[in-house]
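Contributing new records

If you add data, match the layout below exactly. Sequence lines come first and carry their own label; structure lines follow with theirs. Keep one chain per record. Anything else will be rejected by the validation script.
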Amino acid sequence: MPRTPAIMLQGTGSDVGKTVLVAGLCRLFARRGLKVRPFKPQNMSNNAAVALIPETGGFGEIGRGQWLQALACGTAPTVDMNPVLLKPQSETGSQIVLRGRVAGEAKGRDYQRLKAGFLDTVLDSFARLSADADLVIVEGAGSPAEINLRANDIANMGFATAADVPVILVGDIDRGGVIASLVGTHAILPETDRRQIAGYLINKFRGDVSLFDDGLAAITDFTGWPSLGVVPHLAAAAKLPAEDSVALERLSAPGAGRKLTVAVPLLGRIANFDDLDPLKAEPDVEVVFVRPGDRLPDHAALVLIPGSKSTIGDLAACRANGWDRDLAAHHARGGHVVGLCGGYQMLGRVVRDPHGIEGPVHEAEGLGLLDVETVMEPEKTVREARVTAPDGAPLDGYEIHLGRTAGPDCARPVCLIDGAPDGATSPDGRVFGTYLHGLFGADGWRRSFLARFGLDAADTGYRAGVEAALDAIADELERVIAVDRLLALARNRE
């Protein structure tokens, strides 16, 4: 029986730009009229998105990158697009999400033993996705050069060899050493894995590409792999949601002349920080991520506490960094404060965890800016929903959270989710929190919110900007990649 055409992009290391390249290729081939589907066997990220569980009609979690790639394909995301999602909870352990649902927790060493049992789940999801597609574009995780992790691998060559999917290896020239990284990967891979690689791409090139002709020739001479193209630095990629917190390690310098500064404490277990992207896209807004050990800037008119995978742990970190004192001073001088999901829980009087879901600490004092209390509950809420502002205006968003929050300030909700009030607002109106992710992506609501600070929002809607960025990236990839050759490699599986 013929198999669905498929191709897999793996990288010589983490953060070489695979997610953006897959998204751009998804958009490119979708515009050619193909039914394209993205797939990532295993992801590690606290930037999660809501996706459909096809057989139940319910919702589960996948990585934000696969949500973006589904958008690029023009299709609704499903849990089969990312069947294994690891959500880090500590320096050594992660929550395991299988096909959208929490399946347990494991420390790194334990997971290496467990993951062999997940290959069938991965292959089943790939088969279901392939059955409804003309082309599947697969994204690896990390690098196949991590040969210490090759045993029981499901993220890179372990999947590629099991599913017999040809691999394109991506090298990032911007970080330097791209020839060595590609040739070195060839040198250390076992022969069975090496044969799976059908070519390579150079990503993030700046300048005159002809200056690298000798470099391409050298890579091909050493490896025997053909070059499928040299991709320039893609400026439009900055307008796309980042897949994980690696992006926050390269924080940009403060912008000059911005009218509103939004300070965001960089929590150790920050989650769903793409909530901030619509604000970052506003030309008059400067979003400043505050690193541990630094103070919240006095000139910030708004402090935004983002989502967290470990509310109690990040509350302790807030106090250790002195951000609780900075936040109290900010509010006392008239500043505004917003808490999203875990950040909302932190703004209350207390967070209780009677079941020990987050660890051994069962109760923590909150930041005290909202008169609410949170109790952690074992059942996670994961859903897309019909959301409106209290005045009936439509909003965008979704929920992924543990816990139930209640208290007097909930009498002033931020929104209605399926008709039920959500969130809380302080009596002075300068502090609010909500479980709704994606709130700032609602153009009308964001425009009204920014007007409180005397700002006019940009004319272009946020989602329209993301769509335009995907089109721009697809245009550029069409120009620089041997697209027809790549498609022929994918079709060789037929």
